[in-house]
From TrEMBL:
Protein's organism: Streptomyces telluris
TM regions (residue ranges): 202-221, 252-274, 300-322, 328-356, 387-405, 570-588, 600-617, 637-659, 680-702, 708-731
Compartments where found: Cell membrane
High-level lineage: Bacteria, Bacillati, Actinomycetota, Actinomycetes, Kitasatosporales
Name of the protein: MMPL family transporter
Family matches, as SUPFAM superfamilies: Multidrug efflux transporter AcrB transmembrane domain
């Protein structure tokens, strides 16, 4: 089938290249502007208790985490007449915006469009007496908070943020205003992600082109992988644009598309062109050389793409759309890279056989084809003389590198994934410093339960007192008042009633804690949201005796639910990936041992990669090497899953290449030692060149200002380095020497079935006379 495809592409080479160019242009036009349709979230588990709590608070109480938080700072006091007038004017303008559903501020309390402060009134909503909510004023009385809730999310929410922020953050009389909140941070994340994507392309494309010129020795040959990558990336952008019509897709999918598309397009094109040149050097006519190259190297491309895609498909097992978006982008770009390489490379070789297939500017400086990779052959033979010692030393070194992972602390990403000097990050840090009670907000919702009778008011009062006395709680606010350490705190506004008399206080700042949908309580946690103490606090809140079954929301509860969801789904995802990969490699190698060996060595490599992830990004080491970022003391709970699937797939790419060359050598010689040495000699120049090219792309991505992309790039790059330096040249020969005949063992019935799955290299006549089988 692959041979027929190659001959057809060569026969119709000009129409194939023209159609590919037209398809790429059409996909690029359709996918243009996809960034505006992508979302920045995707961390929370849909349907979880925290997600239900967030939906209830947003839809029925107009509460929960606000979309925009403004920090209005006065030169003296926010209670000064000029500051108060400017603040009320700001609240009035925000409240009347058609994209705003409600505003909560220090000067007004919660207001909606029907109760906006009149322009220039200088008073409370509707012109009444001033209302001051001390919880929204900093301790030095110079900063006041204004929380804004938008009408909907997605593109409508983004448009509202773009419209509101320029005027809201402009000078407001004596007030100087800064903005934060999840809608503002999402906007900043999208902006920095787009900048990172542009920077990656500006660095990776010219650097990759120069490296490809050195590898291929031809400018025409060097441009071929980039053209394949352009077709694959354009197709993936179109696929993502289509997916946004039916599901949410993360903005980080774009970064993964560019990096993986370029890396694998270079890989697959390199395999095909290198094999074509080998066939030409052996004396084959161009047409036969092309067919032979696609028959052998094309088989590697197909199996490699299938293996990488299977690994990334494992991300679909998780309900978090951040992870699913990585699967959508990764699987699309992998399959399109393989398809584009198998179609475009034969067509281009047929059109320009001399410029691509034979031209080499550095031919005089390269070793003769028979001597290329001789150093790798000698290394393999030395390793196989002491296989047990090499296996022990290499395994020990990788396990030592993995040790920091024992100290991993998982969390969620927050504003600190952005550069430290970003205005949004500075505003968020000012919010943490000036309003410690808002550092870790936890919402406890009581759906359907209202304090609408004397006994129920007292019950809510007792419940809030009890929660405020729990370890790790700074305070509690609800419809009955404010509580600290089990005692009622003074209200910040006049109250006509009190829980002691069985009626609710008349404070406007407390009215939004009840609605026909139920009641909720705002709990202020003492520790950072993703610290173990905060996770324990959420558990205590869920277990505390409540007037009705509670739903606990907030950042900590969302993280806890997401972590539990990942833990539940992870064994199934890993098991499915392992079984699918094993079956694929079983069909490819016709061996039971080699697939198991491939899985074990890849896992060993990734344990060291995860250790580096903790050592660098959780503990904050080696910033001089990887660039500046903010170490938060945690690792985002979703990133090891993404890094595992991506790095595992790329490692399988090199494993398949090496096994294919070893299998061909074994078919010729029948000897494991000689076959392993010959296979490494043939494959090592290819996978080291490929690793260098992939590293170029990943290191360009590692210049990202968004820490999540930097983490993914650095850890995947380290995995590629370990794979090319330790796993393939040292552990593979050592383990294969130790296994001996077991490398090629397969029970007879499966062997007969496996022969029909994938084409296998045919043994040459000298294999019949091999002196000693391996």
């Amino acid at each position: 089938m692959l041979t027929s495809l190659a001959r057809a592409c060569a026969r119709h080479r000009r129409p194939v290249l023209a159609l590919a160019a037209l398809a790429a242009v059409a996909c690029a036009l359709f996918g243009h502007g996809v960034a505006a349709r992508l979302a920045s979230g995707g961390w929370t588990a849909p349907g979880s208790p925290s997600a239900r709590a967030e939906a209830l608070l947003t839809d029925r109480f107009h509460a929960g985490a606000p979309d925009v938080v403004l920090l209005a700072r006065a030169p003296d006091s926010v209670d000064a007449p000029a500051a108060r007038a400017a603040g009320l004017d700001l609240v009035g303008r925000l409240c009347r915006d058609p994209g705003v559903t409600g505003v909560d501020s220090y000067w007004t309390g919660p207001v909606t469009r029907g109760s906006c402060p009149a322009a220039g009134s200088g008073g409370a909503p509707g012109g009444g007496a001033a209302v001051d909510d001390a919880a929204l004023r900093s301790g030095d009385a110079r900063t006041a908070l204004v929380s804004v809730r938008l009408d909907g999310g997605g593109r409508a929410g983004r448009a509202a943020v773009e419209r509101l922020l320029p005027t809201a953050t402009a000078p407001q009389g004596p007030l100087r205003v800064r903005a934060t909140g999840h809608a503002v941070l999402d906007r900043a994340l999208e902006r920095y992600s787009e900048r990172d994507l542009l920077r990656t392309e500006l660095i990776a494309l010219p650097a990759t082109l120069l490296l490809l010129v050195f590898v291929f020795g031809s400018v025409a040959a060097a441009c071929l992988p980039l053209s394949v990558g352009a077709v694959a990336v354009a197709g993936t952008l179109a696929a993502l644009r289509g997916l946004t019509a039916v599901t949410e897709v993360s903005t980080f999918a774009l970064n993964l598309t560019g990096a993986v598309g370029l890396a694998l397009s270079v890989d697959y094109s390199l395999y095909l062109v290198a094999r074509y040149r080998e066939e030409i050097a052996s004396g084959s006519p161009p047409e036969d050389a092309l067919a032979g190259a696609v028959r052998s190297a094309g088989r590697i491309v197909v199996v490699s793409a299938a293996a990488v895609a299977l690994c990334l498909l494992g991300l679909l097992a998780f309900p978090l759309y951040f992870l699913r978006s990585m699967a959508y982008a990764g699987v699309s770009v992998v399959l399109l890279s393989a398809l584009a390489a198998l179609v475009l490379v034969p067509a281009a070789l047929a059109c320009f056989p001399r410029a691509i297939g034979r031209g080499d500017l550095f031919a005089r400086r390269r070793r003769a084809p028979g001597r290329a990779g001789a150093g790798w052959r000698r290394l393999a033979l030395r390793v196989m003389r002491r296989p047990l010692l090499v296996t022990a030393l290499a395994t020990g070194a990788l396990l030592v590198l993995a040790l920091p992972f024992r100290q991993v602390v998982f969390g969620f990403s927050d504003d600190r994934v952005l550069p430290r000097d970003a205005p949004e990050v500075q505003a968020t840090q000012a919010l943490r410093d000036g309003f410690p009670q808002l550092r870790n907000p936890v919402e406890v919702a009581l759906p359907g339960w209202r304090p609408d009778a004397t006994g129920r008011v007292a019950e809510l009062d007792a419940y809030a007192r009890g929660l405020s006395a729990l370890p790790g709680v700074l305070g509690v606010r609800t419809a009955t008042g404010s509580y600290v350490l089990g005692h009622e705190a003074p209200l910040a506004c006049p109250a006509e009633a009190s829980p002691a008399r069985g009626t609710l206080p008349g404070c406007p700042a407390l009215r939004h804690f009840t609605s026909p949908a139920g009641t909720w309580l705002a709990v202020s946690g003492e520790a950072d949201p993703y610290a173990p103490a905060s996770t324990a606090l959420v558990a205590r809140l869920q277990e505390a005796r409540a007037p009705a079954p509670p739903l606990v929301g907030g950042p900590t509860a969302q993280f806890r639910d997401a972590r539990n969801t990942l833990a539940q789904r992870l064994p199934w995802a890993l098991g499915a990936m392992a079984v699918a990969t094993f079956v694929l490699l079983l069909a490819f190698t016709r061996s039971l041992f080699l697939p198991l060996k491939a899985l074990a060595l890849n896992l060993l490599s990734l344990t060291a990669t995860f250790g580096a992830m903790v050592f660098i990004f959780q503990q904050g080491h080696m910033k001089w090497l990887v660039g500046e970022f903010t170490a938060t003391g945690t690792v985002s709970v979703v990133m090891p899953v993404v890094a595992f699937c991506l790095a595992f797939g790329l490692s399988l790419d090199y494993e398949i290449l090496l096994l294919a060359r070893i299998g061909e050598a074994h078919a010729r010689t029948g000897d494991t030692v000689r076959a392993t040495a010959a296979g490494l000699q043939a494959a090592a120049p290819l996978f080291t060149a490929s690793a260098a090219l992939v590293l170029t792309v990943l290191l360009a991505l590692a210049t990202a200002e968004v820490a999540l992309m930097k983490l993914l790039a650095v850890t995947t790059a380290l995995s590629v380095v370990l794979d090319a330096v330790v796993i393939r040249p040292l552990l593979v020969p050592a383990v294969m020497r130790l296994a001996g005949r077991a490398n090629w063992w397969l029970p007879a019935p499966p062997r007969r079935r496996a022969r029909t799955v994938l084409p296998q290299p045919q043994p040459s006549p000298d294999a019949v006379d091999a002196s000693r089988p391996g």
